[in-house]
Amino acid sequence: MKKKILEVKNLKTSFFTHLGEVQAVRGVSFELNEGDILGIVGESGSGKSVTSLSIMNLIEHPGKIKEGEVLFYGKNYNEEIYSKIDLENPSEEDLKNIKLYGPIDLSKLSNSEMTEYRGNELAMIFQDPMTSLNPVYSIKNQMMEVIRRHTDMNKEEALERAKELLSMVGIPDPKGQINDYPHQFSGGMRQRALIATAISCNPRLLIADEPTTALDVTIQAQILELLKDLQSKTEMSIILITHDLGVIAEVSTHVVVMYGGMMMEKGTVEDIFYNPQHPYTQGLYRSIPKSTAKTKERLIPIEGSPPDLMAPPPGCPFSPRCPNAMKICLEEAAPLFKISDTHTSACWLMAEDAPVVKGFKKTKGAK
Amino acid sequence: MTIDNRKPLLEVRNLKKYFDKSRGLFIRTPKVLTAVDDISFTIYQGETFGLVGESGCGKSTTGRTIVKLYEPTGGQILFDGVDLASINHRDMLAYRRRIQMIFQDPYASLNSRMTVTDIIGEGIDTHHIFKDSDDPRMAKQERIYELLESVGLKKEHASRYPHEFSGGQRQRIGIARALAVDPELIICDEPISALDVSIQAQVVNMLEDFQKTKGLTYLFIAHDLSMVKHISDRIGVMYIGKMMEIATSDDLYDKPLHPYTKSLLSSIPLPDPHSEQKGKRIILEGDVPSPINPKPGCRFASRCRYSREEVEIITVNTLVGRVIRETLLDPVTNELIIKDNKVITPEIAEVIVGLNLPKISLGKQSCFTETPELKEILTDHFVACHFTEEINANLLKK
Questions:
Q1: Mean pLDDT, to the nearest integer, of B316-340?
Q2: DSSP assignment string, A208-258
């Protein structure tokens, strides 16, 4: 049984703008185990990036985590002690133990408390490697800052560690290039340097937000290979956020499909690609060209356009574009129906009394 | 369309576009960015020609030079038999109607102060499309409504401004603008890269429909290889200003002959977790070299795995002037002696000889000295590589 590392429960994040509340994330829940690579896939505005920023507690004004928990099972988590605690009515001793040895709700931490975790047990890399690096400091400077902030290494040790990390991520001449400034690095090398910085304190969880979107396809292949390689060496967990189904299939073990701020489907990578049970996932898959298809074979697009998050439809966010939409879909968002132990789908077609539609399997025991 | 009865619409011959990048007030070091360096290809009437490559390979510059948004540095652009490269601005106007362009960024390519009617109608006015009709204003308005409907928008949208539309809708306006003057060739410069996955398919299907109904010819520039394969009849692969391979899209994907095309295609992540290709990926080392003052020889040589040969006789004479194809570290101190792809100087040659290595890998002579020409290896399949036959011995035998 793999150890749990992160548990997101009913996360809701909104941005309070002058025009009104933008409900970017509307109730997302998932779990992540040690060593898993979770891919979060969705289009722009689906809430995938806001989900990851909420996990890192990086939501800034006017944004706010409205509801929900982000439980992180970090280094201090002690299962033995925690499992003995009676969570229903804990004693004083128990409350102390929960604080010391239980999972931490990252969404409730203050900014200064959060710095203990960010860059240390949790790390994040972003889409644009140029804007995530400071142009006026050398790579050495920026890497050593992170290492010395979170460890008690002295300057020499930190420099050695930085060089070791750069060679780990495949920078050809770490000794010479560590003194370079970001503009002297190419896009792929910058992303490598960022990955090196992110893994410098052996994080338990790495969040990669569209790490290869700004890169060319041959460089993308290099970076994905690197991420997979690092994951297998260090046993860290990765959350990979992307809009590219190909990238998800390439590296993920588990997938969450998001649309309009909500979770549409969740499962292992095999569940999602070989047995998709949500009309949105199926539509997304149909709308991309396959390598096996002959040239000019017609694509099947999803008609319509994504919902307005200022005034999301009351029911399922996908219902206005869904070919199988029913009356209930427009009125009420579907709960997550369990298809198998690993696979759930938020679609009313999974309900027991729903009409039978080709391509969808009914779940047993669903309400 | 069979190979014999097709008619060329656009013939690009030895097209060059260089940008002067020399800088400095007192010291001017001559720097030339060879964005497009001597490329030739033909687009036949009614087909879609895809142009792919990584960023900076010159594919967009090629498209822009064809419509003379850039003045070509050299070469010919034969459109319907007339060389656009040599005609003046005034004569070009007539051809601007026949060649239209759709741009990548649907936000930047529409003037935010113009209504949709103005945007689509601008070309109609410039080219006096309805000058012979009884009521040119009515005819223009009718035409705009008709165009809006054909791209899936409504009449009511005509008086709105671009900011009122989503990215996908804006790209539709861009397409309507291009269609307004009844062009023959449309240059689509990354028309779908800025759009969401589910919207991309809508736009691609629309472009395909217009091609069928209006008999359009497309030059489709993109970096999304699977989408290019889907839409194109033939594809040209570019790398740092050079054309590497041209083939029909099925041929290119089934049997790529150029080492660069092979690795480019194998890098596409497939939406299939257990795909057979997963283990066969050719991961290129290093980054795309700079197109400023490029070195002689094949542009891809520094990253190509076939461009190396093992040399066992290591003397100063055999080494000097040749290119090293491995990063050489001092076995004792672990200090860097010479980096991959660097030319060996006499001093470094002495050091290497001193190391007493049993063998060393050097760049193949011709790859680093002669630029390979684009040759027709199979019917309608052109490759620019010195060693095409050697590399593809198995493929070509069949």
A1: 84
A2: EESTTTTS-HHHHHHHHHHHHHHHHHH--EEEEEES-HHHHHHH-SEEEEE
Contact: A176, B208; criterion CB under 8 Å: no
pLDDT confidence of residue A367: 42
pLDDT per position as a tens digit, A191-203: 999 999 999 988 9
**Measured CA angle at B92 (ends B87, B98), to 5 deg:** 130
Residues B253 and B334 placed together within one structural domain of the fold: no
Using CB atoms, pick whichever of A186, A217, A269 lies closest to residue B268: A217
Could you give the angle at which helices A187-198 and A217-234 cross, rounded to 10 degrees? 20
- Asked if residue A293 has pLDDT above 80, the reply is no
Enumerate residues 6+ apart whose C-beta is below 8 A from B362.
B308, B309, B311, B319, B322, B323, B324, B325
What number is the average pLDDT over the span A218-223? 89
Whether residues B273 and A291 touch (CB distance < 8 A) is answered with: no
**How many CB atoms sit inside 10 A of residue A79's CB?**
12
Shortest CA gap B351–chain A (Å): 19
Is B151 among the domain residues?
A: no
**Same domain, yes or no, for B326 and B218?**
no
Q: Please check whether residues B219 and B318 belong to one and the same domain.
A: no
Which residues in chain A have their CB less than 8 angstroms from residue B201's CB?
287-288, 299-302
With bands split at pLDDT 50, 70 and 90, how would you rate the model's confidence at B355?
Answer: confident
Provide the shortest C-alpha distance from residue A246 to chain B (in Å): 4
The separation between the first and the last C-alpha atoms of chain B, rounded to the nearest angstrom, is 25
Q: What is the pTM of this model?
A: 0.88
Residues B84 and B205 in one domain: yes
First to last CA, chain A: 29
pLDDT at position B172 is 93
Of B27 and B124, more confident: B124
A47 φψ region: left (φ > 0), alpha (ψ -120 to 50), beta (else) = left
Task: Flag whether B206 is in a domain.
Answer: yes
Token pair listed for B260: 């660069």
How many folded domains does chain B comprise? 2
Residue with tokens 């990765």: A238
In a domain, B148, yes or no: no
- For residues B337-361, give the mean pLDDT: 87
Chain A residues whose CB is inside 8 A of the B267 CB are 217-218, 220-221
Average pLDDT over residues A90-114: 85
Q: Which residue in chain B has the smallest CA separation from A295?
A: B230
* Beta-carbon pairs below 8 A across chains A and B: 140
Tell me which residue has tokens 């003052």.
B293
Q: What number of other Cβ atoms are within 10 A of residue B215's Cβ?
A: 10
The distance of B135 to chain A (nearest Cα, Å) reads 36
CB-based contact A293:A281 (threshold 8 Å): no
pLDDT of amino acid B398: 59
CATH of A4-121+203-350, one of 3.40.50.1820, 2.60.40.1930, 3.40.50.2300, 3.40.50.300: 3.40.50.300
Supply the DSSP string of B202-248, one letter for each residue: HHHHHHHHHHHHH--EEEEE-S-HHHHHHH-SEEEEEETTEEEEEEE
Domain that holds residue B340: 308-363
The answer to whether the CB atoms of A250 and B339 lie below 8 A apart is no
pLDDT at B150 over 70: yes
Residue B17 maps to which CATH number? 3.40.50.300
Q: What ipTM was reported for this prediction?
A: 0.83
Q: Which of A173, A269, A287 sits opposite B198 (nearest CB)?
A: A287
